[in-house]
Design a protein that fits this description.
Elements lengths: L3 E4 L2 E4 L4 E7 L6 E6 L6 E6 L6 E3 L7 E6 L4 E6 L8 E7 L16 E2 L3 E6 L1
Parallel strand pairs: 2-11
Antiparallel strand pairs: 1-3, 3-8, 4-5, 4-9, 5-6, 7-8, 9-10, 9-11
């Protein structure tokens, strides 16, 4: 397991952009972003393979969000554009252990989680 620290959350108007960062304490493999809105279950947002050759997005964010990573900095990013009020949530990054997993859309594939960063989109 690694320690993960997210940053970059905040308050933005609808249509605006934010970039979230997640820095790990060590080497990471498949990474993911999830979010949890008040009163709702945690949901998958995006995932990226270690070599950045594969990415996958939730339908609700596809075309607006971009996941990327810099392995030299042990950091994964989530660029969020055209934000909507329904994107308001606490965003969590997650790291999967070394293994055959390439992309992970389910929380059970990950064994390390950050503390979360709040994203609030006003209408």
């Amino acid at each position: 397991q690694v320690q993960l620290v997210e940053s970059g959350g905040g308050l933005v108007q609808a249509g605006g952009s934010l970039r979230l960062s997640c820095t790990a304490s060590g080497r990471t493999y498949t990474m993911g972003w999830f979010r949890q809105a008040p009163g709702k279950e945690r949901e998958f947002v995006a995932t990226i393979s270690r070599d950045s050759g594969n990415t996958y997005y939730a339908y609700s964010v596809k075309g607006r969000f971009t996941i990327s990573r810099d392995n030299a900095r042990n950091t994964v990013y989530l660029q969020m554009n055209s934000l909507k009020p329904e994107d308001t949530a606490v965003y969590y990054c997650a790291a999967a252990p070394s293994g055959p997993l390439v992309l992970g859309t389910q929380a059970r594939y990950y064994d390390s989680w950050g503390q979360g960063t709040q994203v609030t989109v006003s209408s």
